[in-house]
Amino acid sequence: MQPIVISGSPSIPANTIVDNVIAQDPSLRRYLRSPFLASGSLTAVISATGVRVSMDYGSKNVVDNSDLRVATFFDMEFDTIARQWFPNEGDQLVLRAANTTGAPVTLQYRIVLTPIDISQLAPDRRVVQRIATILAGAVDTVVYDGSRYERPPVDCILDVLATASAAGLTQQVYVEMDSIAPAQTVRPANRVPQVPQDIMIEDVEVPQDKLIQVLVSNPTGGNLTYFGRLELPELIRT
Question: Which domains are assigned to the chain?
Fold first, then answer.
C-alpha cells in the first residue's frame, strides 16, 4: 500500500466554525475514513491570524484548538504541527477550523497517512499550539488556560517549546504545585516553535489529570507575542 496525501486550501468564512474542512471538498470525501492502519501527520498554515484548528480521528483528539503560522505556503519541516498519531482502518478524520475574525481566512493543510503494520503502532503525541499577546508589564499570564491539555487525559511526557517576538519575555512551568522550571528567558526568534531548537523543557512526566501551567511575564514597556507549543507523548496507547 502507498501513502495517501489529503490536502486543500479552503477559505474559512468570517465568524464561522467549519466542523470538518475535509468534508467540505467533495473530491476528498472518500478519504474521510482512514483506509488502513496508518501513521498520520498534519501540516498547516493560515493566510491571516484568527483561525484555530483541531484534529481528531475516531473518538480521539490529537491537536487541541491551535494557532498556526501565517504564511502563503507551508514548510513541511517547520509547519508540521502533529507528526505522531495512528488512526485505525475505518477511523473518521476530522479537521476542524474556527475563524473568529470578521474576514475570510485561507487554511492551507496537508494530511499524510502512511500505512504501517501492527508492530509499528505506538502511543500518540498530542499537541496544542498557541500564539498569545503578552501585554506590557503583565505578570504570570496563563497561556494554556482552559485548553484541553491543560490537564492531560492520560499519563504523558511533557515537552514545552516557545519563542518570543522580541527580547523580554520570561516563562515558568508548573505541574500542580511542583515548579518544573523557574523563570526562563524566552528566545526572541519571532516564529512558531521549531524542533529541536526551540525546546525549552522536555521529558517531564505528567500523570493523568494533573494541572500544567505555563506562566509568561513581560517586564518590558511594550506588548510582545509569545509563540508556544505543548507536545504530550502518551506513556501508553489509549
Answer: 4-120 (2.60.120), 125-233 (2.60.120)
